[in-house]
Specification:
binds iron/sulfur cluster, 7 helices, alpha+beta, about 190 residues, 6 strands, about 30% helix
């Protein structure tokens, strides 16, 4: 079933309560992942249906509309996909950050055994994230909320297909930074 606007709003609310680390990591890298002045190509695709929780007139973002079929998306993605570019951290409103931004620097990975785990993001980006480079320890609350969010998101076949496509390409030689079994065992 396609993910609903209400589900997106709930995920946003849940992820608003957590941060990957307990300090402003932008202070160590000049907020590289937000810096569209330094990195012209920087931006992100919204997930299918995520546009419903955003206002196209919002001054935080520039919107571009592409056809899913023209890019390397799974075949279940059809029609319009939305690419947004930020206008910098000075205009950023935390509660408006898209999913891709909220769950960074973690990323979902589906093992060949079908287990959903988190890894450090290996997205092809034009900057180095010091948290990923140093394999910084991320907050447990953030990891738990992020895994839960991706589990809900992947109830939508299109998002499942996106995660599966990336996971199949990378294979199982990944460093897992969070899995539910770890949570159950209470090991943090
Ligand atoms: S997530 Fe990484 S690149 Fe982005 S501000 Fe934090 S340390 Fe910098
Ligand atoms: S939405 Fe905010 S936090 Fe996310 S990339 Fe844009 S400026 Fe950075």
């Amino acid at each position: 079933m396609n993910i609903s606007e209400e589900q997106y709003r709930q995920i946003y609310e849940d992820l608003d309560k957590v941060s990957p680390v307990l300090f402003d990591c932008g202070m160590i890298c000049g907020a590289s992942c937000c810096d569209t002045e330094r990195h012209e190509d920087l931006g992100m695709y919204l997930l299918p249906g995520e546009e419903a929780v955003h206002d196209r007139d919002d001054p935080c973002f520039d919107w571009m509309v592409d056809a899913a079929e023209d890019y390397d998306f799974p075949s279940s993605w059809t029609g319009d996909v939305y690419f947004i570019r930020c206008h910098g951290t000075f205009l950023c409103e935390r509660e408006k950050r898209p999913i891709q931004c909220r769950t960074f620097p973690a990323a979902p990975h589906l093992t060949s055994g079908g287990e959903l785990v988190l890894i450090y993001s290996d997205a092809d980006v034009p900057y180095i994230c010091p948290m990923i480079a140093s394999e910084a320890e991320l907050s447990t609350a953030f990891l738990k909320a992020t895994l839960k969010a991706w589990r809900t998101l992947m109830g939508d076949q299109r998002i499942y297909d996106l995660v599966k496509q990336a996971s199949d390409r990378r294979g199982d030689e990944v460093k897992v930074i969070w899995r539910e079994a770890v949570t159950d065992a209470g090991a943090v």
